[in-house]
User: Fold these one by one.
Assistant:
Number 1:
Amino acid sequence: MRISARADYAVRAALMLAAKQDGPLKAEAIAEAQDIPHKFLEGILNDMRRGGLVASQRGVRGGYRLARPARDISVADVVRAVDGPLVSVRGVRPPELAYSGPAESLLPLWIALRANVRRILEGVSLADVASGHLPDFVGALAEDPAAWSNP
């Protein structure tokens, strides 16, 4: 599984908005604070706006803000808004795949992978990440010494 730059930037921008409680935040400020190319960020924010995650306001006091409370927006919501489905195989969702012979057991493997990715990303809200208080099950997975090592 690979997290795209687009998804990473989108989550980081959403976290900036989650931390900003007193009004909109300009795209330029987000781009500068998170070292994200401004034009790329504008496209990401537009996708997030179309996805109902952020609202935009024009004018001198304009900018972007979350469209819902941060506790009601999961990391999965943000990734889906900019990248589509969380897990696919060759651009197809696992339930739409069919395998035969020795590859037949790949289907449940891909479905289990999808279920675990969804469990983690849907189980963590922007508020969780912004506050630094991840759910216990995520912390336990991240603390495993083998989590970042390659066999």
Number 2:
Amino acid sequence: MASGENDRSFGPLTELVTAGRDPDDSYGFVNPPVVRGSTVVWPTVADMKALRGRYTYGRRGSPTSDALCDALMRLEGSDHVSLVPSGLNAVALGLLATLSAGDHLLMVDTVYEPTRKLCDGLLKRLGIDTDYYDPLIGSEISGHMRPNTKAVFVESPGSLTFEVQDVPAIAGAAHARGAAVVMDNTWATPLFFRAHDFGVDVSVSAGTKYLGGHADVLIGWVSATGQYASAVKQAHGALGLCVGPDDMFLGLRGLRTLGVRLAHHQASALRVARWLESRPEVERVMHPALENDPGHALWKRDFSGACGLFALELAPGSDEAVAEFLDGLELFGLGYSWGGYESLAIPYDARAVRTATRWAPTGPTIRLHIGLEDVEDLIADLDAGLARYAAAS
């Protein structure tokens, strides 16, 4: 498939299987080859000076990177995709491509905590000022914009607490003032939320999660449209960013099964979330696909699906009770990241990472990632864990 073709000619699952591969280019093999290389040689000095040829240096692209970038461009509906070594690297590239010294950034208060540290550390040192805003502000964000506001960052649902933002309203207000919209779209993936269709200029994703899907790769990507496509490409080249060929191959392999895996994650997570809603030990479940979730109407309007990540607030209890709940789980690993085949759980406290809004749960909060195990086994594991929590509270 030719890169840069933004209109889907097939359904999304067909696109996942066909995009970014051409058996005629791969000696008939279904999967593109893994090309490992740095140096590219030219036949003559004239060819070298004119940079004739498809490739010039390994860092600047290879058949393997082209295959993954072309496939992701089809999925995103964008003009350009750059590959980077991690999701946080994708966030950094997206922001550095849209901001300069003296600029002002509006950052959603529910953002992934390492992104906040990037803003309050490196970006501040580079002369970029960041203000945090309420994720539910919608078009009223225009009241927080300054003459030098050059980017508005959204992440929907919010990290840890899963608030859904009105991305089209925010994008409309930002564009009216000449600011770019940058989005962390890792939770939904472009399969369930095609960010550029909703006014996002630069979409960043941690492919470490669902693109890889097997907890064995660190990779990210930045997708851009319009004027921001060249800005991202230039910043990517200036920073010398590149991804190893084996990681690109794992990303390509994961891409082919992304649709069927996400469907299973979604169905199992919703079953677990609805079961948790019925438990007396649970005060509330934070999952935008649940009908009683505060963000459900916006989620239903804009998203075509949900992944396996959500959170719950427990009835009041001690730290020791939380440890009893989590330490005894058999099928849920206690680990960061998510998006792999395995189920995970972490305790968290979002109060310390809010500055523009107040987060005040009445009990401990737990984030769950529902993997590909039999959902009945996961529910039984959580059932025993909640019983331990109740006994220890």
Number 3:
Amino acid sequence: MTLTYLPFDAATVANLRAGGPDAYGLPPERAISTGTGTPCRCCLQNVPGGAEMLICASRPFSDLQPYAETGPIFLSAADCTPHNGATIPPVLTTSPDYLLKAYDRRDRIIYGTGQITSSGQIASYASQLFESAEVAYVDVRSARNNCFLTRITQTP
């Protein structure tokens, strides 16, 4: 089995870069990146220092429901190459640990799976979670600010 680290949907990213509404119906805010702590959810790398970035509300779930958390994300304002998904993205190597949570096919958190996980153990813990047939995907969030970073899926 192979883990895939998903960037944000390309259509969503293009819409936000064009000034389209975020999860709250607002246009993205524009700011200048400091170069650290500003992970772009497309290329899954920090937005370079001095580069323009977008700050917007995101809900990485298709439907409104009790577990559909909304929070802030960053995107490079300029086009960037989406993360290829095959390797652990750079944004998952810049902090000592991350929050991983498994979800089922109905987008519900699977209780007992949420765990602060060291950066070197992300793939191992995600693989362990996928041993359960109930797990559809694993979300990775900041352990400090709870911001959504990426979604991990598994393919045969």
